[in-house]
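step 3/5: co-fold with flavin mononucleotide
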Amino acid sequence: MKKLLLGALIGTALTTTVEAKPLVAYFTLTGNTENAAKIVAEETGADLYKIELVTPYPAEYKEQTELAKKELAEGTLPPIKPWPENIGEYDVVFVGSPVWWGTMSTPVRTFLASGVLKGKKVIPFVTHGGGGADNSFSDTAQCGYGRLERI
Ligand SMILES: Cc1cc2nc3c(=O)[nH]c(=O)nc-3n(C[C@H](O)[C@H](O)[C@H](O)COP(=O)(O)O)c2cc1C
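step 4/5: write tokens
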């Protein structure tokens, strides 16, 4: 009986001291954010989840920029495919996005605005083409979050 109790206590101590794995959720069109996401996952031991659009973005850069501009101006949240069923198990979620027109890309906005990360620690990161993160982090407030700190 004593052994059983001890085993249970050690088990509890282990599960409370060992931190749960984080998740790295990211969207990418050309692979840059995916590369960054893989580095974050390697460094933190996190699982990876690629955010995918129900209707893929056009292949041409000009069309991509025009569609993104329209979506951002109109506040359109393009539908994304379902996220992992076990997402509730993650306490910490890194969220990666390309910078689009100086802000967070619309597929990542869909993910954030869904509310599925409410109550979790959300750590955003972005890749960009030289213009900097710009309003990407402060604009997370538009997705139901406060200004999120960059890493
Ligand atoms: C629609 C669109 C808008 C973009 N807007 C910006 C921008 O405002 N500033 C910037 O530095 N780069 C901008 N870029 C470049 C991307 O942020 C950059 O190439 C990024 O690393 C792409 O990530 P990905 O390969 O994961 O898609 C834009 C690219 C696209 C397709």
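step 5/5: annotate
The chain has a mean pLDDT of 87.
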